[in-house]
Batch of 4 targets.
Target 1
Amino acid sequence: MARPTRCRRVCTEPTCSGFLPQGESAADAVTLTVDEYEVIRLVDYEKRTHEQCAAQMEISRTTVTEIYESARFKLSDSLVNGKALVIGGGHYRVCRGDRERGCGRNCRWALQTKLNGKGEATMRIAVPYENGQVFQHFGHTQQMKLYDTENEQVVQEQVADTAGSGHGALAGFLSGLQVDVLICGGIGAGAQEALAQAGIKLYGGVTGTADDVVKDFLAGRLVYQANVQCGHHGHEHHGCHGEGHCGDDKHGCSGNGGRCGE
């Protein structure tokens, strides 16, 4: 008797149920199961290793490899042969961030549950974080420190694991946590655009201790680079350019080489 397939844990169900090719297409459709979608999301989009993906989905690394290969073939079949792609079905359960219903780990659901008490008067600030400092490569940060502030005072702090989210996924990660402001070091143009689309205000080119730069921001004396631009290859930085200072306007400044409000 075959052993039953173990349910694979997924963070959330896909927002789209399928895709249709433009132009003349084949009559057949390809079905990508939700667990296959989750493996593609974790490995290809969030750039996690198969081992990290296995831990997140609570399955073996061998199973991740099998699912990944199946999913990649289905995607190629859809692209090459012009077949409609349908997303649905499979053996999975949706994580809800607690031990009774889901993983209970530091996943996006768990973190949102902890931080869902944000009020209208609260401004949430995120800082890429490593050993107490502002981590200088946004796209490779492993942790974010989150600060809830009210009346220019920090009322709550928490360090969140980004779980391997890449450049584009980090903007969605922060948006899901209702972040209003990002203070960071180096950051590329694509990530800046994604943050702007998410409505997150950016203060880049910042160095120093994370706690201190947040205090400087709240006090209106944060030194940052309004037009920060970073070119990088791998983990190296090849320079950031731009200049500006955050002054009295806490809701955004146009960098002009001086202090806002002067």
Target 2
Amino acid sequence: MIKAVIFDMFETLITLFQSPLYFGSQMAKDAGIPEDKFQELWRPTENARTIGDITLEGALEMILKENHCYSEELLNSIVAKRVAAKEDCFHHLHPEIMPMFDGLKKKGVLIGLISNCFSEEADAIRKSVLSPYFDAMYLSYEQGVQKPDIIIFKRCIEELSVNAEECIYIGDGGSFELETAKELGMHAMQAVWYLQEGTTQPAKRKPDFLHIERPLDLLTYL
């Protein structure tokens, strides 16, 4: 019997690719720094930003100072644009996301979240319209550990007080999350409703996992 469904966030419940992008290239342009020089400092911070060792503000301050263009005004401007871009994603949900959540709640199914995220994303998630639905929320920035580490999966199912085999895990397939969920004994399924072939999205359809084409289709597996 399925007692809980645990979701990934990005490209599963929300997508970054239906809102104006504000990634490294856009931040570099606003900072007036050549993209290659910006990225050589920005990209190495990804792991530290994901597990809470450094904030967005801290990483950007370092980059601006290294390039001799730091000002509080410039830093705050870039941070504000980055935060706005992340928050905007929650205004472009697949139309079946909220009905799916409502359906899970009506069936008495617990809802969990395991997401790799940065400081600005953790804030956006906790302030979002989705936040009240989660019975357990495990964000890498807050946990100090990221997918696919099995530890963050175990922490979530322990808080939900369920066994792994009583859980469905739904993700887009990035970060080897589906493989870890399956290894743990969960029913791992790939959410493909946001996937767009031929785009810059990192995940692709994985033939070894069941594909969920639309959010409401999930309810048929309970």
Target 3
Amino acid sequence: MPERIDTHRRIGIFVLYDENGIVDNYVEVLLKDMLTVLQELIIVVNGSISDVGYQKLRKITHKMYIRRNIGYDGGAYKDVFVEFLSEEELKKWDEVVLFNDTFYGPFFPWKETFEKMEKEMVDYWGLSRFPEGNYFPNGKGIPEHIQAYFLVCRKPLFLSNAWREFWITLEYPKTYQEAIENFEIRFTQYFSGKGYRNMAFMDQGKVNITNSENPTMWCFETLICNHCFPIIKRKVFCLIHLDVAKKTIDYIRDNTGYNINLITGHLERLYRENRIQPLTPFEPEELYLFYKKHKRIFIYGHGIYGKGIARYFEYKNWKYDGFIVTENKENNVNLLVYHRMRFNLNDGIILALGESAFQEVYSVVKKDLDEKQLYYPRVFSS
């Protein structure tokens, strides 16, 4: 076990899920680095784990709990606090760290992150704060809250009656939105309502968030490159962030000691398993071959996906011949309407669309064009 770097007594609870039960190398590095600020680690596996993965984790800690994959992270934490960790056990610790496998890192030592937060007079803290003003797909507003992929809770909080009440009354989320509402959002609202104080690591840097979007999805370059933010969420590696993600990865490679192969190796596995779209910041061979094979390249879609593809092309100094849309309702002179276009066999179209729009468009274009003229990403689902 790595040498401890301070005298604070911390226990960590790590939640891991992989549909094939695989423990990737980035997980091993993340956990070993966390042991520099923890004295004890409990790993909760949601679902199954391979024999190889189990042996990897056993080398890090002997305290493992394998459970049915129900309730997402919140359900896993609930079982630990209600069924396994008694109040007497919790009294041994100064801080409880709750974290999961949805991010890569750390790019900067955990020691530095924890030291910066030590002086803050709060009862719990996280790495990032989700600002008010965004909405769920059903139109329901999302209130401001500390994002729960990484939470550090201090003794006045986790020894309180409110703490035990929170976990006992937590209902196992059945959907991703319920996981956000019932656990992540409720955590902040419930304990803030009881008078407990919170803070995010990103608050210290006074990060200027110019919109209401998720900061780890839309401000990750600023957070990492300018504010020593220690992690990057794996969901940023998608169509809409190609150029910025590539720049950020370059920065991490050139300015930190983190092995970028830990990220690329995991993403490549997800790609092989059809669980991630093939357009990542690591110059996918398929897209490059598609680009080289066609004389003209068009991007079907002018929303966030289409613009993300365009930015990536510009970053790579690749040429594209315009955006195609089904209808040009705004009479934008820079948009090409599909039914007015004439294509030849040397033309290629990238279908950069959301899932519902893709289904509608694909059913039309596949009748007019050869399949080899179409390039479309698989939807990220991990």
Target 4
Amino acid sequence: MSGAPVALIGALAGGLLALALREAVLASPAAAAWLRLALEPLRRAGREGYAPSTRERRRLAALGALAAIVAGWLLGGLEVALPLSVAGPALAAWAISSRRRRYRAAVERSLPEVATAVADSLAAGRSLRASLPAAAAYLDGPPAAELARLGAELDLGAGTAEAVAAWRARMRSERVDAFAAALLSQRLAGGDLAGLLRRFAAGAAERDRVAEDAKSATAQARFTGLLVVAMPTGGALFAELVQPGFLAKLLASPASAVLLAMAAGLQVIGFVAIRRLSRVVE
């Protein structure tokens, strides 16, 4: 039997196995409940910037290891599944941190709208303490969640400065720090806080526009660099699909294994270098 039919049969078997696992999970309420419980921190991290507890991280790491084992076994058998199982927990931790970074970036991008909403509430005659939770009604997504959390802390009796400081510590963002400093400036120097927030919103919007222009100008170069980095990995996976056992034969030879490890290291260095060179400094 030639390599192409074997690859097609393997792909069909993998798809059927995935469907079988899905049906098995859905047929078992306990397994479905555990899966939802394990994925809940990942969902909350992207929706509200949630930081999972140690127990939740362990549960998600176990799920990541199991998924890596299954994927590795489908790709190349136990020789690939066992090394990938070590990367499963790291993949789960990366997923959590990545979703929290996207959440923080969404809050940062929405700071002009947040500043405008707070300024409008101040102009309507509300105090700063009342304007912060009131502005959440004019927003949605991550900024609305943050302002709602801020309002809940104020309702529980926290001082305005303490609540804003807790928000800064939670976000760990220079842009949020600048916005918080603008919010609390009136307490020290007085003045027109609504006008200051409107100027902050205009400056933040212009900053975002310039950053987007820079990203658009470098998009093609970044994609080309990442494509060059990904081509060897894609070629190796394609060769494994066409000729099963290709990677196992390479790893069985000490010289090939050493060269493959060096190539992988250089690929990682190249990927990191491309990310650093193409990063837009805001």
